[in-house]
Amino acid sequence: MGTAPFDEIMGAGDADGARPELRELCGWLTDTPDGELRRRQQSAETTFRQLGITFAVYGESEASERIIPFDIVPRVFLADEWARLSEGLVQRVEAINAFLVDIYGEQRILKEGVLPADLILGNAQFRPEIAGIRPPHDVWAHICGIDLVRTGPDDFFVLEDNARTPSGVSYMLENREAMVRLCPELFAKFRVAAVDSYPDRLLETMRSVAPRGCGGRPTCVVLTPGHYNSAYYEHSFLADSMGVELVEAADLVVDDDVVYMRTIEGRVRVDVIYRRVDDDFLDPLVFRPDSMLGVPGLIAAYAAGNVAIINAPGNGIADDKAIYSYMPEIVKFYSGSEARLPNVETYRCREPEALRYVLDHLDELVVKLVDGSGGYGMLVGPTASKAEVERFRAALIAQPERYIAQPTLALSTVPTLVEQGVAPRHVDFRPFVLSGAKGVQVVPGGLTRVALREGSLVVNSSQGGGTKDSFVLMAEQGTMTQSMSGIGGGMTQTLRGGML
After folding, report:
1. Are 224 and 276 in contact (CB under 8 A)?
2. Phi and psi dihedrals of 380, rounded to 5?
3. Cβ atoms 431, 85 nearer than 8 A
4. Pick from 207, 286, 288, 361: CA 20 to 30 A from residue 454's CA?
């Protein structure tokens, strides 16, 4: 079966039984009775259920609203690990923003042959309707979730980029609140960076990119498709946490290229919209004419420079997995440096030689739709049935440009409380990066997703995955840490141009 995966607490299975820096955590796990761990975990999940922290499972008639299972054993990043990750995340997000500025503007990266033009111009996620529009302050990717995997002590890889409407930050915040309440002894043992200032930082980011001339206190809103959306809890949670209005399309109207919110006291001008509505449904006058979720005239107001939209329309092209495969080249083109965070090796099935290799090794690879998400439209070759492999073979032959393939990685594991006791389970990680007019900020934490099924590499909540709190340990005195009461603030900041 080969070597066991790297365990982020137990390490590579050395004689001491734990990574030296995390022996106290290992001791806590050993000394806390199994029944007590389960009681605390069940208490957290009961609270989540009472608060309505659920997600929707589309296509299921029963139990369509579920909580994401929560695991009581935290995932931990050491201070030096986090410093390296933060540098790589900032570099990558800056490159994503530069890429979006370019492809909807001069298109230098296409003219210089770094990317094939048809990969952009023929891509369904490229929105020619907004080409030439410049968002306020030239910021496109305001909120990014960069999915990472780990295979060893120093081996981190980017699995995919999320620059459209990345979700999961509410789980990061609620998981931390649960851990502070249920496991206060861990915050006495470890200096953990706080994450609960995220809503304030998000609001600060939104205000920083408001159109020029809108005054000192721009009006910000969160635009949701409505309560049937799978991430509706997060939409309402963030709006409430920031102290801004949660609106649906019917609450907004565009008049003379200006967006207004309807209120009982009359219209209020809106300056910044954090949209959680996909491009297709954002404005029926520009995209899908049958959309009931969008605001007619919104893109015209955006083009006129009268409203900022977070994230900017057209960002979906940066999420495309075929574009992802070129990210090392994209990073180097815009930054002049090699990417600090490498990609997973990727085969572009649109290329004949790569397609031949993938077809010959389907039972060894992970195959993904370039525009897929949520763990759907994916083949995990080593665990797939012969019928599944053959179905993907036929799909690849019919439409190779729709797929990429990657090796099956030995994802790292973290001890997890499962039915049989504490056992290793595979994890991935989504850190959140905020970009505004004043610079780039990396939240010192993120969403750790865990595959609860033994041996599974699929961590998505819709596919049976759960979540863990993510501790970032701070080494230097004077750094803001998570307090015992859950009150505090802290961000890893990298700010360009000395503007803050």
Report:
1. yes
2. -105, 95
3. yes
4. 361
Q: Quick check: helix, strand or coil at residue 163?
A: coil
CATH of the domain at 364: 3.30.1490.270
In the numeric block, which tokens belong to residue 352?
A: 């004949």
Alpha helices in 368-410 (DSSP H): 386-398
Residue-range definition of the domain harbouring residue 392? 345-408
Helix, strand, or coil (residue 236): helix
Asked if residue 146 is part of any domain, the answer here is no
Structure tokens at 234: 């997060």
CA distance 278 to 245: 19
- Which position has the token pair 């075929």? 322
Q: Please tell me the distance from the alpha carbon of residue 77 to that of residue 362, in angstroms, as a whole number.
A: 34
Give me 330's structure tokens: 């994209």
pTM, to two decimals: 0.90
Q: How many residues does the chain have?
A: 500
Domain count, the chain: 1
In angstroms, the CA 431 to CA 144 distance is: 8
Query: What tens-digit pLDDT sequence spans the chain (500 residues)?
Result: 457 889 999 887 554 578 889 999 999 999 999 999 999 999 999 998 888 776 655 444 444 567 788 999 999 999 999 999 999 999 999 999 999 999 999 999 999 999 999 999 999 899 999 999 999 999 999 999 999 999 999 999 999 999 998 989 999 999 999 999 999 999 999 999 999 999 999 999 999 999 987 767 899 999 999 988 888 889 999 999 999 999 999 999 999 999 999 999 999 999 999 999 999 999 999 999 999 999 999 999 999 999 999 999 999 999 889 999 999 999 999 999 999 999 999 999 999 999 999 999 999 999 998 877 655 678 888 888 999 999 999 999 999 999 999 998 889 999 999 988 999 999 999 999 999 999 999 999 999 999 988 887 777 666 668 999 999 999 754 443 443 333 333 444 433 322 22
Is there a domain that residue 363 lies in?
Answer: yes
DSSP3 helix / strand / coil % (the chain, rounded to 5): 35, 25, 40
The answer to whether the CB of 357 falls within 8 A of the CB of 367 is no
Q: How far from the centroid of its chain's Cα atoms is residue 216's Cα?
A: 31
In a domain, 500, yes or no: no
User: Six-digit token pair at 84?
Assistant: 């390296």
Q: How far is CA 126 from the centre of its chain?
A: 20
Q: CB of 88 within 8 A of CB of 483?
A: no
**Token pair of 50 as six digits:** 């009472």
CB 268 within 8 A of CB 260: yes
Q: Of 35, 5, 18, which is closest to residue 76 (Cα–Cα)?
A: 18
Domain membership flag for residue 369? yes
377: left (phi over 0), alpha (psi -120 to 50) or beta: left
